[in-house]
Design goal:
This protein is mainly alpha-helical. The protein contains six helices and no strands.
Length: about 160
């Protein structure tokens, strides 16, 4: 029975580690797709700013209204540029943190809705997989310890009688 328990433990550990590795690799794919979406929004914001600054329709507006629209367009473009730069220029370990810190909820939902799982074949992807495997192993061991302790029940010490 002990042999079966060891084999089951190894099997469950392998499943958790593999699932964590796959999840980590998909997180990198998600970050790539979010960054692409963010880049598209940034280009759109820059085009809108250019239109507000040079477009005939906006020139016909009063200076106050055009100034407000231009300020809003500049603010949006600079916000998106800052978010894009912080995510795109972050190192492999900082990208998930940068994404969390600078994520736009609407863009995040759109990326999740349109997310296509992928297996990026880069050195960064290998790092994500290895980190996922280590985290999966640690998670498995952390969850396993209380389960094993509960399954064993209270241990009773046997005392020898001195004769």
């Amino acid at each position: 029975m002990e042999w079966f328990a060891r084999k089951l433990d190894a099997f469950l550990a392998a499943i958790v580690i593999a699932a964590a590795a796959v999840a980590a690799s998909q997180s990198q794919a998600f970050i790539i797709q979010y960054t692409q979406r963010l880049g598209g929004h940034l280009e759109e914001a820059r085009a809108h700013l250019s239109t507000v600054q040079t477009g005939l329709r906006y020139r016909l507006m009063s200076d106050t209204v055009r100034g407000e629209l231009e300020t809003d367009a500049k603010h949006r473009a600079s916000e998106l540029q800052a978010a894009y730069d912080s995510i795109a220029k972050a190192n492999s370990f900082a990208k998930p943190v940068a994404l969390i810190r600078h994520a736009d909820p609407t863009m995040l939902q759109g990326t999740w809705r349109d997310f296509v799982p992928a297996l990026p074949m880069t050195s960064e992807s290998a790092v994500y997989v290895i980190v996922g495997m280590v985290l999966g192993f640690l998670l498995y061991e952390i969850v396993k310890v209380p389960v094993v302790l509960i399954a064993r029940g209270p241990s009773r010490r046997k005392f020898r009688r001195r004769g």
